[in-house]
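Consortium newsletter contribution from the modelling node. Members have asked for a concrete example of what our holo predictions look like. Here is one, prepared for the coproporphyrinogen III complex that several groups have been discussing at recent meetings.
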Amino acid sequence: MTKTILSALAGQTLPVPPIWMMRQAGRYLPEYRATREKAGDFLTLCYTPELAAEVTLQPIRRYGFDAAILFADILLLPQALGADLWFVTGEGPRLSTITTPAGLAALKPAEAIHVTLAPVYETVRILAGDLPKEVTLIGFAGAPWTVATYMVAGRGTPDQGPAHALKAADRATFQGLIDLLTEATIDYLSAQVEAGVEVVKLFDSWAGSLRGQDFDDFAMAPAKRIIAALKARHPGLPVIAFPREAGARYTGFARATGADCVALDNSVSAEWAAANVQKDGCVQGNLDPALLVTGGERLVSETRRVVRAFSGGPHIFNLGHGITPEADPDNVQRMIDAVRG
Ligand code: CP3
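And here is the predicted structure:
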């Protein structure tokens, strides 16, 4: 029997959509907080294969999701390229910044990443052995634009201002950074596939701040190159692309990049996306994660509305963005019951 997520990614319309959640291993779960405590800090958790595999499995055990997503972070790749990376509790990531040609030249070449990332591949190998046979293992990386926004600014920013400024002031250096990240992402995802992931997802969390030609050059072109290279190395590998807040640019994104599935954030309505995006193939999404905090009858009715809107084509049920630490674990079960019931 084919796994449900792989069937949906191959274009099948299923009577009940398969389901998983962005950030399903996370701080809303007491068992995650306990394992993170044991690891001491977030990066140690990411780089300790037994513990990273454990937190990946926790939401599968508790809820029986159809997919597990490798526990890691999109910012491990810049670290593997030589950037300094640390997390400030309650504030988020910090990195050394890349803003000059010399800074770019000091980064390591793409093929050097495996030294740092070897523990991530070991996590994948453990999971490939330990996951229930019906559960699909998803690997991931950040898309080059989103990773570059953190590398240029040295932190998360509300408007990605520093990356836009470098792009305007020194296009060659900015393009060089995108090109290095594109090559490194191909190598990174390829190594995840060799270790045992069955699907890969590209997170372009800040794609929505790219306008006009910039969206073509920095969201679509790198995705297209990464997907083509991965499919050349691993024929038949399904790829999910998440150009978050792409809005009208979701239309045609799968055809233009070769993605098998487009993940939708909750700023677009499911009804609009069914007509304009799902017409080209599988979509993933797009319940508002805030509903897992507030719960109640609206959680159930909105979950059913998303399922109904996408019921005419291939669909993987998910949130429009990651579940937040304030979410109630019981609301996750209510959402799953509303999808499957
Ligand atoms: O989804 C999963 O369960 C798999 C693991 C995963 C994490 N981060 C773990 C994590 C995945 C797929 C990511 C992706 C990621 N990381 C993205 C893209 C998706 C998105 O949310 O838009 C981005 C932008 C990052 C960078 C990042 N990592 C930030 C900005 C932060 C701090 C904000 C926050 O939520 O705390 C992180 C930390 C992080 N990554 C946590 C987890 C579980 C929380 C760390 C903790 O336990 O303290």
